[in-house]
Amino acid sequence: MKYLIATSLSVLALLFVVVNVSAHNGWVEINTPIVEKGQKAYTELYFGNHSDQHTSYRIDRKWGIQDTKVIVKTPSEKEHDMTSDFYYMGEVSEVDDDRAGLNNFYNGSFKTDEDGIYTVTAKGDFKYGDQEEARVRTAKAFVAASETPTIEGVEEMTGYEQPVTSDRAEIVPMFNPVVTTPGEFITAQLILNGEPVEDEDVSVIRRSDSADIQLETDLNGKFGWEAGEADYYLIRAELEDEGVEYEATMTFVVQEKND
Ligand SMILES: [Cu+2]
Q1: Roughly how many angstroms between the first and final C-alpha of the chain, as a whole number?
Q2: Exposure string for 10-48, b = 16+ CB within 10 A, e = fewer
Q3: Which of 16, 97, 113, 152 falls 20 to 30 Å from 257 in CA-CA distance?
Q4: In a domain, 7, yes or no
Q5: Which pLDDT belongs to residue 129?
Q6: DSSP 3-state of 16
Q7: Which of 30, 19, 17 is nearest to 160 (CA)?
Q8: How many A from CA of 61 to the centre of ligand 1?
Q9: How many C-beta atoms lie closer than 10 Å to residue 97's C-beta?
Q10: Is 165 contained in some domain?
Q11: Cα–Cα dist 187/196, whole Å
Q12: What is the DSSP string of 23-80?
Protein backbone atom coordinates (compact mmCIF):
# COMPACT_ATOMS: atom_id res chain seq x y z
CA MET A 1 0.00 0.00 0.00
CA LYS A 2 2.77 2.41 0.93
CA TYR A 3 4.43 1.64 -2.39
CA LEU A 4 1.20 2.40 -4.27
CA ILE A 5 0.87 5.80 -2.60
CA ALA A 6 4.48 6.66 -3.34
CA THR A 7 3.97 5.70 -6.98
CA SER A 8 0.86 7.81 -7.48
CA LEU A 9 2.54 10.77 -5.79
CA SER A 10 5.47 10.59 -8.15
CA VAL A 11 3.06 10.41 -11.12
CA LEU A 12 1.41 13.62 -9.88
CA ALA A 13 4.79 15.28 -9.48
CA LEU A 14 5.67 14.34 -13.03
CA LEU A 15 2.45 15.83 -14.41
CA PHE A 16 3.11 19.05 -12.55
CA VAL A 17 6.56 19.29 -14.09
CA VAL A 18 5.13 18.96 -17.60
CA VAL A 19 2.63 21.83 -17.28
CA ASN A 20 5.10 23.99 -15.42
CA VAL A 21 7.44 24.42 -18.38
CA SER A 22 6.51 27.50 -20.30
CA ALA A 23 8.81 28.96 -22.89
CA HIS A 24 10.35 28.39 -26.26
CA ASN A 25 13.89 27.15 -26.60
CA GLY A 26 16.78 27.48 -28.98
CA TRP A 27 18.95 24.58 -30.04
CA VAL A 28 21.80 23.74 -32.41
CA GLU A 29 21.94 20.72 -34.64
CA ILE A 30 24.80 19.17 -36.53
CA ASN A 31 23.79 17.67 -39.82
CA THR A 32 25.91 14.53 -39.46
CA PRO A 33 27.52 13.53 -36.14
CA ILE A 34 30.65 11.97 -37.69
CA VAL A 35 32.50 13.43 -40.69
CA GLU A 36 35.75 12.68 -42.46
CA LYS A 37 38.56 14.93 -41.28
CA GLY A 38 39.04 17.76 -43.77
CA GLN A 39 35.35 17.86 -44.66
CA LYS A 40 32.83 20.45 -43.52
CA ALA A 41 30.40 20.11 -40.65
CA TYR A 42 26.98 21.64 -41.33
CA THR A 43 25.01 23.15 -38.46
CA GLU A 44 21.59 24.73 -37.93
CA LEU A 45 20.12 27.06 -35.33
CA TYR A 46 16.53 26.27 -34.43
CA PHE A 47 14.03 28.01 -32.20
CA GLY A 48 10.71 26.49 -31.22
CA ASN A 49 9.19 23.94 -28.92
CA HIS A 50 5.69 25.40 -28.60
CA SER A 51 3.15 22.60 -29.00
CA ASP A 52 2.56 19.62 -26.68
CA GLN A 53 2.90 21.93 -23.65
CA HIS A 54 6.36 23.04 -24.73
CA THR A 55 7.91 19.65 -25.24
CA SER A 56 7.79 19.60 -29.01
CA TYR A 57 10.56 19.48 -31.57
CA ARG A 58 8.67 21.79 -33.94
CA ILE A 59 10.04 25.14 -35.08
CA ASP A 60 8.22 28.22 -33.83
CA ARG A 61 9.64 31.66 -34.74
CA LYS A 62 13.41 31.97 -35.15
CA TRP A 63 16.71 32.67 -33.38
CA GLY A 64 17.59 36.24 -32.48
CA ILE A 65 20.83 36.02 -34.42
CA GLN A 66 21.75 39.65 -33.70
CA ASP A 67 22.17 38.79 -30.00
CA THR A 68 23.95 35.50 -30.60
CA LYS A 69 27.49 34.22 -30.72
CA VAL A 70 28.25 30.78 -32.12
CA ILE A 71 31.61 29.39 -31.08
CA VAL A 72 33.28 26.23 -32.38
CA LYS A 73 35.77 24.63 -30.03
CA THR A 74 38.24 22.40 -31.87
CA PRO A 75 39.71 19.16 -30.46
CA SER A 76 42.89 21.10 -29.60
CA GLU A 77 40.72 23.66 -27.76
CA LYS A 78 41.06 26.54 -30.19
CA GLU A 79 37.93 28.65 -30.52
CA HIS A 80 36.45 30.08 -33.72
CA ASP A 81 33.57 32.53 -33.87
CA MET A 82 31.33 31.33 -36.71
CA THR A 83 28.37 33.64 -35.99
CA SER A 84 28.66 35.60 -39.24
CA ASP A 85 28.50 32.38 -41.29
CA PHE A 86 24.84 31.76 -40.51
CA TYR A 87 22.26 32.31 -43.21
CA TYR A 88 18.53 32.68 -42.59
CA MET A 89 16.55 30.04 -44.47
CA GLY A 90 13.21 31.88 -44.46
CA GLU A 91 12.12 34.72 -46.71
CA VAL A 92 13.14 38.27 -45.96
CA SER A 93 11.01 41.41 -46.17
CA GLU A 94 12.71 42.72 -49.32
CA VAL A 95 11.18 39.77 -51.16
CA ASP A 96 7.86 39.15 -49.47
CA ASP A 97 6.53 41.05 -46.47
CA ASP A 98 3.79 38.55 -45.64
CA ARG A 99 6.10 35.60 -45.28
CA ALA A 100 9.21 37.37 -44.03
CA GLY A 101 10.73 36.20 -40.78
CA LEU A 102 8.26 33.39 -40.15
CA ASN A 103 9.15 30.14 -38.41
CA ASN A 104 12.44 29.09 -39.84
CA PHE A 105 16.06 28.31 -39.11
CA TYR A 106 19.61 29.47 -39.77
CA ASN A 107 22.40 27.36 -41.19
CA GLY A 108 26.16 27.64 -41.19
CA SER A 109 29.19 25.41 -41.64
CA PHE A 110 32.82 25.07 -40.73
CA LYS A 111 35.69 22.98 -42.03
CA THR A 112 37.18 20.29 -39.80
CA ASP A 113 40.96 20.02 -39.88
CA GLU A 114 41.77 18.04 -36.73
CA ASP A 115 41.02 14.54 -35.52
CA GLY A 116 38.61 14.64 -32.58
CA ILE A 117 35.39 16.08 -31.25
CA TYR A 118 34.29 19.62 -32.08
CA THR A 119 31.84 21.39 -29.75
CA VAL A 120 29.51 23.96 -31.29
CA THR A 121 28.03 26.36 -28.73
CA ALA A 122 25.41 28.98 -29.54
CA LYS A 123 25.03 31.68 -26.91
CA GLY A 124 21.78 33.44 -27.74
CA ASP A 125 20.69 36.11 -25.28
CA PHE A 126 17.60 37.42 -27.02
CA LYS A 127 13.94 38.14 -26.26
CA TYR A 128 11.01 36.74 -28.20
CA GLY A 129 7.33 37.67 -28.25
CA ASP A 130 6.56 40.08 -25.42
CA GLN A 131 9.39 39.01 -23.09
CA GLU A 132 10.78 41.99 -21.21
CA GLU A 133 14.17 40.51 -20.38
CA ALA A 134 16.49 38.55 -22.61
CA ARG A 135 16.91 34.94 -21.64
CA VAL A 136 20.47 33.63 -21.38
CA ARG A 137 20.62 30.61 -23.70
CA THR A 138 23.40 28.09 -24.16
CA ALA A 139 22.85 25.52 -26.91
CA LYS A 140 25.39 22.82 -27.70
CA ALA A 141 25.99 20.12 -30.29
CA PHE A 142 28.93 17.92 -31.21
CA VAL A 143 30.62 16.52 -34.28
CA ALA A 144 33.54 14.10 -34.53
CA ALA A 145 36.07 14.34 -37.36
CA SER A 146 38.33 11.44 -38.20
CA GLU A 147 40.28 9.85 -41.02
CA THR A 148 38.16 6.80 -40.23
CA PRO A 149 34.71 8.39 -39.85
CA THR A 150 32.95 5.41 -38.35
CA ILE A 151 31.50 4.71 -34.89
CA GLU A 152 34.50 2.50 -34.13
CA GLY A 153 36.88 5.16 -35.39
CA VAL A 154 35.60 7.85 -33.01
CA GLU A 155 34.26 6.01 -29.95
CA GLU A 156 37.42 6.57 -27.88
CA MET A 157 37.45 10.31 -28.50
CA THR A 158 36.94 12.66 -25.55
CA GLY A 159 36.56 16.38 -24.97
CA TYR A 160 32.74 16.43 -24.95
CA GLU A 161 32.80 16.23 -21.11
CA GLN A 162 34.58 19.61 -20.75
CA PRO A 163 32.23 22.51 -19.91
CA VAL A 164 32.52 25.42 -22.35
CA THR A 165 31.01 28.18 -20.20
CA SER A 166 31.59 29.55 -16.69
CA ASP A 167 28.81 32.14 -16.35
CA ARG A 168 25.81 30.48 -17.96
CA ALA A 169 23.64 27.36 -17.68
CA GLU A 170 25.00 24.42 -19.65
CA ILE A 171 24.37 20.73 -20.23
CA VAL A 172 27.51 18.58 -20.12
CA PRO A 173 27.25 15.04 -21.54
CA MET A 174 29.04 12.29 -19.63
CA PHE A 175 28.69 10.02 -22.64
CA ASN A 176 30.23 10.31 -26.08
CA PRO A 177 27.37 12.11 -27.87
CA VAL A 178 28.23 10.86 -31.36
CA VAL A 179 28.36 7.09 -30.75
CA THR A 180 25.52 6.29 -28.31
CA THR A 181 23.35 3.32 -29.30
CA PRO A 182 19.80 2.34 -28.21
CA GLY A 183 19.36 0.96 -24.68
CA GLU A 184 22.62 2.38 -23.28
CA PHE A 185 22.23 4.10 -19.93
CA ILE A 186 23.59 7.60 -20.39
CA THR A 187 24.17 10.47 -17.96
CA ALA A 188 24.58 14.22 -18.31
CA GLN A 189 25.04 17.10 -15.91
CA LEU A 190 23.34 20.48 -15.63
CA ILE A 191 25.58 23.28 -14.43
CA LEU A 192 25.09 27.00 -13.76
CA ASN A 193 28.14 29.26 -13.40
CA GLY A 194 30.25 26.09 -13.41
CA GLU A 195 28.37 24.57 -10.43
CA PRO A 196 25.96 21.60 -10.49
CA VAL A 197 22.24 22.45 -10.33
CA GLU A 198 20.16 20.05 -8.22
CA ASP A 199 16.40 19.30 -8.33
CA GLU A 200 15.92 20.84 -11.75
CA ASP A 201 13.53 19.56 -14.44
CA VAL A 202 15.09 18.31 -17.65
CA SER A 203 13.33 17.06 -20.79
CA VAL A 204 14.69 14.80 -23.50
CA ILE A 205 12.72 15.19 -26.74
CA ARG A 206 12.89 12.94 -29.78
CA ARG A 207 12.94 14.61 -33.18
CA SER A 208 10.83 12.23 -35.32
CA ASP A 209 7.71 12.37 -33.16
CA SER A 210 8.38 14.91 -30.36
CA ALA A 211 7.99 12.12 -27.76
CA ASP A 212 9.54 13.36 -24.51
CA ILE A 213 10.79 12.03 -21.21
CA GLN A 214 10.95 14.08 -18.03
CA LEU A 215 13.90 13.82 -15.67
CA GLU A 216 15.21 15.60 -12.60
CA THR A 217 18.78 16.41 -11.65
CA ASP A 218 20.28 14.87 -8.50
CA LEU A 219 22.53 16.44 -5.84
CA ASN A 220 25.39 16.59 -8.35
CA GLY A 221 23.27 18.11 -11.10
CA LYS A 222 23.26 14.76 -12.88
CA PHE A 223 20.42 13.02 -14.66
CA GLY A 224 20.44 9.67 -16.41
CA TRP A 225 18.19 7.76 -18.78
CA GLU A 226 18.18 4.91 -21.23
CA ALA A 227 18.96 6.02 -24.79
CA GLY A 228 15.93 5.56 -27.05
CA GLU A 229 15.82 4.32 -30.61
CA ALA A 230 18.22 5.65 -33.22
CA ASP A 231 17.16 9.24 -33.77
CA TYR A 232 18.01 12.87 -33.15
CA TYR A 233 17.38 14.10 -29.57
CA LEU A 234 17.11 17.44 -27.80
CA ILE A 235 17.89 17.84 -24.08
CA ARG A 236 16.43 20.97 -22.53
CA ALA A 237 16.51 22.66 -19.11
CA GLU A 238 15.21 26.06 -18.00
CA LEU A 239 16.00 27.75 -14.71
CA GLU A 240 15.95 31.07 -12.96
CA ASP A 241 18.62 32.48 -10.69
CA GLU A 242 18.63 35.93 -9.10
CA GLY A 243 16.00 37.19 -11.52
CA VAL A 244 17.80 35.97 -14.64
CA GLU A 245 16.24 33.26 -16.81
CA TYR A 246 18.66 30.69 -18.14
CA GLU A 247 18.20 27.98 -20.69
CA ALA A 248 20.50 25.10 -21.56
CA THR A 249 20.01 22.76 -24.51
CA MET A 250 22.04 20.08 -26.18
CA THR A 251 21.35 17.83 -29.14
CA PHE A 252 22.84 14.44 -29.91
CA VAL A 253 22.23 11.47 -32.14
CA VAL A 254 21.53 7.89 -31.07
CA GLN A 255 23.13 5.64 -33.68
CA GLU A 256 22.00 2.25 -34.93
CA LYS A 257 23.92 -0.57 -33.34
CA ASN A 258 26.35 -2.19 -35.75
CA ASP A 259 25.98 -5.96 -36.00
CU1 LIG B 1 4.78 28.61 -26.73
Answers
A1: 45
A2: eeeeeeeeeeebeebbbbbbbeebbbebeeebebbbbbb
A3: 113
A4: no
A5: 80
A6: helix
A7: 30
A8: 10
A9: 10
A10: yes
A11: 14
A12: --EEEEEES-SEEETTSEEEEEEEEE--HHHH----B-S---GGGEEEEEE-TT--EE
Helices (H), 62-188: 151-154
Element (H, E) at 87: strand 87-88
**Residue 247 within any structural domain of the chain:** yes
Looking at residue 156, its pLDDT comes to 97
Q: Which domain holds residue 110?
A: 25-254
* Cβ atoms 176, 155 nearer than 8 A: yes
Q: Where are the beta strands (DSSP E) in 125-243?
A: 136-146, 169-173, 185-192, 195-196, 201-206, 212-216, 222-226, 231-241
Q: Assign 174 to helix, strand or coil.
A: coil
C-alpha of residue 4 to centroid of ligand 1, in Å = 35
Kindly give the distance from the C-alpha atom of residue 175 to the centroid of ligand 1, in angstroms, as a whole number: 31
The low-confidence residues of the chain, meaning pLDDT below 70, are 1-22
Q: Could you report the per-residue pLDDT of 131-165, keeping only the tens digit for each?
A: 889 999 999 999 999 999 999 999 999 999 999 99
CA of 49 to the centre of ligand 1 (A): 7
How many CA atoms, within 13 angstroms, populate the side-chain half-sphere of residue 90? 21
The residues placing their C-beta within 5 Å of ligand 1, an ion, are 50
109 lies in a domain? Answer: yes
Find the 21 Cα to ligand 1 centroid distance in Å.
Answer: 10
Q: What is the CATH number of the domain that holds 64?
A: 2.60.40.1930
The number of distinct structural domains making up the chain is: 1
